[in-house]
Each structure stands twice: as structure tokens, then as C-alpha cells.
Design brief:
mainly alpha, two-stranded antiparallel sheet, 13 helices, single chain, globular
């Protein structure tokens, strides 16, 4: 029931430490390079890492392939956008509204989706995702298909104004570290072991008397709340809320990042977000066929390790 002790003879703790230090030093590197683009780009990576950390809770540790988690990213973004359009810019109130709305939606969609298994679960989460996508498109008073520009960013008194890129970056980074710590604590608790037990052998866990829906629904709702927070930060980063945030392609991209970085690991989603977005930025500037090259790179990772890049490091250490 206790977490695995850290072995500094392994490359993983050193790599995790290097990633954390690099993230902390991004503003200095951006200033040294003389371009604020790198700071904005790093903020985007961090926001994606928050969202995929939430998805990883149900995908990597619960074995539930959800094609609907972009729905919650979109919900968070639209709560910020719609409330700002109506004169409500208090970030704490926006956060309360977004979390309450996301919890209600996740509870309903989760109860329906968890009545099925496998492809049924995937298709139902996808269906809910598309329902809310078309709902966002139909909101003509809030931009419809064109999206909703943010009239004013969230005001999180007493925190610094989010109009400053540095303040927004460190808020996103602090949120990411909190989410990673909470996920780490959760998966090494009794709840986490039961959740992973259902992924490994559902029949045995049911025979032991553990209620499947209760544990998986709790993980599903919690993961939805994390994605909602990422959506709020995304809206403040781009000063925009768009239906594309909750498209099925966005949900697929979140799954891709989790798989690339390493399912069932705390650092894997962060690594996956950084690698995918950096490759996308570099390759798109070289060729218009960058998606084909990206596909080959992802295929190579999948062939080398079924648990992504972070999982490949575990295999080198002789761990499952």
C-alpha cells in the first residue's frame, strides 16, 4: 500500500527532476532568447499536461478509454468565456461554476457510460462529447461555430493579473504540480489500488466485494474536474473559447498524448504533451506533410513500448 521508493540509480528520477527544473526556468530561457513566444508555447504544453493528467487517471489507471474528455476542457473554457461576456470576471466564482457544472455532467454521463464496457463505453463518451460540441456550435449569441473571444481574463484576487504572460505561466505550472501530486497520492492510496485492481482483474475485484461503478465513477468525475480546470486555463491563455476545444479530434489528441508519454504514470503525460507539441511545432514549419512523419514517430514508440516513453524507461530497469 506504500509508494515505490525512489531509486536515484534509475534515469527516471533524474529525468523527472530535469523536466521540473526546465519548466521552472522557461521564463528565464524565454527572456534570454528575446521572444515571448517560447513562454506562451510552454504555457500551452503545461495546460495540455494538466488535461492529460486528468484523462490518465481513468485511462492509464482505470483502463477506461474515454473519447469524451475534451468535453470538459470545452466546458471550462466556455464558462470563462460566457461569464466574462456577461460581466462576471471573478475567477474564483468562475471556478466554482465550472466545477459544479462539470461534476453534474460527468456524474450523468459517467453513470450512463459505465453501464457498458469496451467499445460501448468509447462510443457513449464520444456521443456525449459530440452532443456538447454541437451545443456550443448552436450558441450563436456566443459566437457559434466561430467561437467566443474573451472580453476579459479571469481575476483571481489576490493573485497577479493573468494579462501578464509570466503570471499565467506560473499559475498553470503550479496547478500542474498540484494535480501531479494529487494523482500520485490518489493512485498510491487504497482507492488507487482498487481502481487499478479493476483494470487488472475485474472479476476478482467484484468477487472481493468492491463496487465497480462507485470507484470508476469517482475516478471519472475527478478526471473531468481536472480537465475542466485545464479548459479554464486554456481560455485565459488564448483569450478565446471555441467549439473545437471539445471536438472528438481534441479528445483523440488527449488520448494520443497519454499513450505517447506513458499510461499509468504520473510524469508520462507531461513528457507526452511536451514531445507531441514540440514535434508538431517543428515539423509543421518544415513540411505540410508533417502529420505523416508524426504518425511514423508515434508508431515507432508504440512498437518499442506499449506503455509509452516513460514505460520504456521502466522496461530498461527490468520493471513491468
Amino acid at each position: 500500500m506504500f509508494p515505490e521508493p525512489i531509486s536515484w540509480h534509475s534515469p527516471r528520477p533524474w529525468l523527472a527532476t530535469a523536466i521540473i527544473l526546465l519548466l521552472l526556468c522557461v521564463p528565464l530561457l524565454s527572456q534570454w532568447a528575446g521572444s515571448s513566444f517560447y513562454l506562451s508555447f510552454a504555457t500551452r504544453i503545461v495546460v495540455f499536461a494538466i488535461a492529460v493528467s486528468g484523462l490518465n487517471l481513468v485511462l492509464g489507471y482505470g483502463g477506461l478509454i474515454s473519447m469524451g474528455h475534451a468535453l470538459y476542457v470545452g466546458l471550462g473554457a466556455y464558462v470563462v468565456g460566457i461569464s466574462a461576456a456577461n460581466g462576471l470576471t471573478d475567477g474564483w466564482v468562475q471556478l466554482a461554476i465550472a466545477l459544479a457544472l462539470a461534476a453534474a455532467v460527468a456524474l450523468i454521463t459517467g453513470l450512463v457510460s459505465l453501464r457498458t464496457r469496451g467499445i460501448g463505453f468509447i462510443m457513449i463518451t464520444l456521443a456525449f462529447n459530440q452532443m456538447f460540441y454541437f451545443l456550443a456550435v448552436s450558441l450563436k449569441q456566443y459566437g457559434g461555430d466561430d467561437g467566443l473571444p474573451l472580453s476579459e481574463r479571469s481575476v483571481l484576487t489576490p493573485l497577479p493579473s493573468l494579462d501578464g504572460k509570466l503570471a499565467l505561466y506560473y499559475l498553470c505550472l503550479a496547478t500542474l504540480f498540484i494535480v501531479m501530486y494529487l494523482v500520485w497520492r490518489l493512485v498510491h492510496s487504497r482507492f488507487g489500488y482498487v481502481l487499478r485492481g479493476f483494470q487488472a482483474n475485474e472479476r476478482r475485484m467484484l468477487a472481493a466485494g468492491f463496487p465497480r461503478v462507485r470507484y470508476q465513477l469517482s475516478a471519472y468525475v475527478l478526471s473531468a474536474l481536472i480537465c475542466t480546470i485545464a479548459g479554464m486555463l486554456q481560455a485565459n491563455l488564448t483569450a478565446f473559447a471555441a467549439p473545437s476545444y471539445m471536438s472528438w479530434q481534441a479528445s483523440g489528441e488527449l488520448i494520443l498524448i497519454v499513450v505517447l508519454g506513458g499510461m499509468g504514470t504520473v510524469v508520462g503525460p507531461v513528457l507526452g504533451a511536451a514531445i507531441l507539441l514540440v514535434l508538431e511545432e517543428l515539423l509543421s514549419g518544415v513540411t505540410q506533410h508533417w502529420m505523416a512523419i508524426m504518425g511514423l514517430a508515434i508508431l515507432l514508440v508504440a512498437l518499442v513500448s506499449q506503455k509509452g516513453i516513460w514505460g520504456a524507461l521502466r522496461r530498461r530497469e527490468g520493471k513491468p
